[in-house]
Specification:
Structural class of chain A: mainly beta
Helix content of chain B: under 10%
Number of helices of chain A: 0
Largest sheet of chain A: 7 strands, mixed
Distance between the termini of chain A: 36 Å
Mean pLDDT of chain B: 94
Number of helices of chain B: 0
Strand content of chain A: over 45%
Order of helices and strands of chain A: EEEEEEEEEEEEE
Distance between the termini of chain B: 40 Å
Structural class of chain B: mainly beta
Oligomer: heterodimer
Low-confidence stretches of chain A: none
Radius of gyration of chain B: 13 Å
Largest sheet of chain B: 6 strands, mixed
Strand content of chain B: over 45%
Number of strands of chain A: 13
Shape of chain A: globular
Shape of chain B: globular
Radius of gyration of chain A: 13 Å
Chain lengths: 115, 110
């Protein structure tokens, strides 16, 4: 079955610790995205990547880092510099094309709680 | 500024009634997507609208796109409780990423 997996589903960390959220897709999509969602809010783009070994900052990249070493994988690290990291994190992927954005498919999400 | 605005943000309606959710966007685009999110869950794709005048229907939901007015509508016909969810529209405004609306939280009451 093709799809996007995110792990873990729930993650608990102490303040001051870095944490890495996993996102894997087997849809053969070139583009991958990370969003943050706070309770009752919409989605805010953290980082996105349209091709391996390249990525761009979204609207709220401060305190986060990513890598894109493989087409299938786009891990997100939440660093200790992120002031309010507790949130629901969603990964998405899509076909990539120049000057066009195609339908994005979402993973199940990781709910991160930092205390 | 690239902006996508949905209204209403909160909608409480009775079963059996009709209603429309509106999605306005700030600059030219011919691609618009509607998603549904159930509480605590991820986003599920509902409709892909790829041209001016596009209309898609699935069950009690119908989505349309007017690119000249920069407006999409999501019409709900004879609402049922199972439609209770948050609905997001998303628009390709920059050619490299989607911009999402704030979401419309729909509650259908018996």
């Amino acid at each position: 079955d093709g799809g996007i997996t995110q792990s873990p589903k729930y993650l608990f960390r102490k303040e001051g610790q870095n944490v890495t959220l996993s996102c894997e897709q087997n849809l053969n999509h070139d583009a991958m995205y990370w969003y943050r969602q706070d309770p009752g809010q919409g989605l805010r783009l953290i980082y996105y990547s349209q091709i391996v070994n390249d990525f761009q900052k979204g609207d709220i990249a401060e305190g986060y880092s990513v890598s894109r070493e493989k087409k299938e994988s786009f891990p997100l690290t939440v660093t200790s510099a992120q002031k309010n990291p507790t949130a629901f994190y969603l990964c998405a992927s899509s076909i990539a094309a120049t000057l066009r954005v195609y339908e994005q498919y979402f993973g199940p999400g990781t709910r991160l709680t930092v205390t | 500024e690239l902006k996508v605005e949905q209204n209403p943000l909160f909608l409480s309606m009775q079963e059996g009634k009709n209603y429309t959710i509106y999605c306005n966007y700030s600059t030219t685009s011919d691609r618009l997507y509607w998603y549904r999110q159930d509480p605590g869950k991820s986003l599920e794709s509902l409709f892909v609208l790829l041209s001016n005048g596009a209309v898609k229907q699935e069950g009690r939901l119908m989505a349309s796109l007017d690119t000249k007015a920069r407006l999409s509508t999501l019409h709900i016909t004879a609402a049922v409780h199972d439609l209770s969810a948050t609905y997001f529209c998303a628009v390709d405004l920059s050619g490299s990423r989607l911009t999402f609306g704030e979401g419309t939280q729909l509650t259908v009451n018996p």
